[in-house]
Every structure is written in structure tokens, then in C-alpha cells.
Amino acid sequence: MFETRKFFYCFCLICLFFLPKMQAQTIEEADKLFAAKNYAAAASMYYQLYRFEKAVETYDLYKAALIKAKKPAKAAALTPLIQQTEHAVRMLSKCEDIQIIDSVVTDKNRFLDAYLLGPESGMLTATEERTGYENPLHDRRFYAEKNANRSYRIYSEIKLRGQWAEKKELNLGAKSMKNQNYPFVMPDGLTLYFAATGNNSIGGYDLFLTRYNLNNDTYLAPIQLGMPFNSIYNDYLMAIDEINDIGYFASDRFQPEGKVVIYTFIPNKDVAIVITDSAQLIPRAQITSIRDSWQPKIDYPEYVAEFQNALAREKRAVTQKDFSFAINDNRVYTSLKDFKNAAAKQLFERAQQLNKERTDLQQKTDSLHQEYAKASLSLQKQLRREILTKENKLEELDTQYAAAVKEVRRLEQ
To answer: 155 pLDDT band (50/70/90 cuts)?
Structure first.
């Protein structure tokens, strides 16, 4: 796959050569509009060029001109635009210094193909209707779906007895968000990345971060990610593979209709701000060239190749493992050889047997439910007793299995 991306690197270099001239001409055009006091068009152009401070200045002059012309309604209508642009000024000043090691342009309807996540990071899914995330244990999933107001909201489901339970809308506590979409949950099960539109957006979908509060079953107030993750275009689906120390996000910046670019980056342990003059800060925020973010003496193509090889080895190991059992957030056992405590190992084997009994009984119960739906009234009475007996036994097995698993984890830790 890396071979197919060499063309993109060459394309970026060509763009980097021509971009200053192209932007200079466009800035000159914006300046001409400003000089002609065509403030509305000039402010919009400055915004598109990431000259946000100049855009604020131009909007202020435009607002003053409207007030002088006794057009208070039109002047008041500029307030949201001015606030958005002032917000963009602050975001630009705090542009994060990240190393973007790869990028690829792809069709929007198949953009997930570029997200190379290890098995321990969970699984991403997408359809025409929604995107979703399923955790590594495959017992909890998150997805976006339109509500009654035709606005996307994020829901979660937990798997019980092999079936997905009733969905629950996540309380993200942000009424100003019109859409909440593209969820991804970190291995801690608490940290949620998602994208949203709304009053805080500087253009289309923006990326946000929040964390689940165990004390009151809510999520903390979402934090908007800074540049270059967010732009004046649509930015969405932040996903991070902690095992391989790799992150991804999608954007339609500088892309034609139906295309998106997927950026691969190295997540920072601590947030670091780009320290440079304004002439270099804007290209870093826009990501006009991924090479601008590279550090000296690092072979990034080799870095990508090593990551892809590590991912391939990890996937081969998963196909060969006997099971996947999480001891805690940082330890996942895949073989009986992984157990250190003999009692925990023995109890885990018992838990596996309970789980098998539970699975077999669930299948038989499901078959009885199907038979019940087609049966006569007299037969339904008989089946009802049998189903009730099996469901009571399922509850008993569930309780025994949960207790065994809890004790296994306690003994092993």
C-alpha cells in the first residue's frame, strides 16, 4: 500500500512549490476587495486563507459600516461570523505540533479502508446510514443515528446473552451541537472521540474529545481539538491505536466532491504547540504538506513500513490465539499459558465451560421462541413452561459466569 502513496508525496511537493504563488495572488485579490471596501467578500476570502485576524478586522469594519448606514439587523447578523472567526484566531495560535507520517486520498464512501487498526483497538464500521465502533471484546458498540429531529446522535449498546440490548443515547451535554457522529472509544472504555457540527465549529464537522464520568453516568463537557486536526472544512473520525502508537483522522480539506484525505500521525504524549512565525504557522495548520511536520533524521517511509509489518504480525498472532480475555485495561490473555496463578487458571477453565453451556442453552432457547411463534395455543402453553425453565437456568449461568470471571481477575491481579 505504501507504494501507491509515493505519488501523493510527489503531488504534495508540487503543491508546495506552487502554493505560495497561488496564495499570494489570492491574498492580493482579497486586499483589493478590502481597499474597495467590499468588506463582506474580503472577510470571507481572508477566512478561507486562514488570515483570521485580518478577517476579524474586516468584519468589524463591515459591521460599523452597516450600523452607520442604519442597518442594525444586518449588522447583528454578523455577530456569529465574527465570533466564529475570533474562535479560529485562538485555535490557530494553539496549533499542535504533530508528526503526520502519511496521508492518502480516497473515496469518501470507502475511507475506512485507510484506517489500519490493530485488533486490540476495536473495530470500525460504516454504512450509508451511520458509522460505528465496537470494542475489542465485542460486547459494546457505539454508533451514530438520526433522531426524531433528523440530527445525528451517538448511541451505545451492550451485548447480553449474545444479543444487543436496547440502545441508549449518550448524554454529551452539548445542546449547541447539531450533529454528533463518527465515534471512537479508547481502550480505557472512558475516552470518546467524535465529530460534531454546531456553534463551536469553525467549518462543517469538527473533532471533539470527552470522557465518561463513572460517578453520575454522564460525559464531561466535550473539548474541541485544535488545529491541524480541525480546519475550516469537515474533519472527522479520530482513531488512535495505542499498541502501535499511531493515529488517524479524516478531512475533506482541499479535496474535490466525494473525496477525503486520511492523515496518519504519531500521537503526542503531551500537547506541544507549533513554535514558528505566522508565515509558517498557517501551512502547518492547513497541512499543505505533511513534510512540514517531519523531524530531522527520521526515515518516515521506513517508519510507516515498520508499523505495517508490526500490524501484520499482530493480526497473525490474533488468528492463532485460543481466546481473548481482558485481565485489566493493559493486559489481555490469549492462552492458558499466560496465567500466573494456578487457581485463576483452573477457575478460568470452569468459566469457559460455563460460557459454553450458556451459549448452547441460549441457542436452544432461541429455537423454542421461534417454535412458540408458530405453535398452536395448546402447544404454546407447554413451550411457555419449557422456555421459562431455560431462561431461569440462563440467569443462573449468567450469575455464575460473571462471578467466576470477576474472581479470575482478582486472583490473577
So the answer is: very high
- Which of the four pLDDT bands, split at 50, 70 and 90, describes residue 229? very high
Buried b (16+ CB within 10 A) or exposed e, 120-152: bbbebebeeebbbbbbbeeebbbbbeeeeeeeb
- Sign (positive or negative) of CA dihedral 320, 326, 330, 335: negative
Note whether 186 and 240 are within 8 A (CB): yes
- 251: which residues sit within 8 A by CB, 6+ positions away? 231, 233, 234, 235, 236, 260, 261, 263, 287
Half-sphere exposure of residue 14: CA atoms within 13 angstroms, side-chain side: 6
How large is the angle between the packed helices 79-93 and 278-286, nearest 10 degrees?
Answer: 100
Q: ∠ CA 99-100-101 to the nearest 5 degrees?
A: 105
Q: What is the pTM of this model?
A: 0.71
Position 338, amino acid: D
| Spatial separation of the C-alpha atoms in residues 52 and 282, rounded to whole Å | 10
Highest averaged pLDDT of the listed ranges 75-79, 186-190, 326-330 = 75-79
Residues 79 and 245: beta-carbon distance below 8 Å:
no
Kind of pairing, strands 206-213 and 218-219? antiparallel
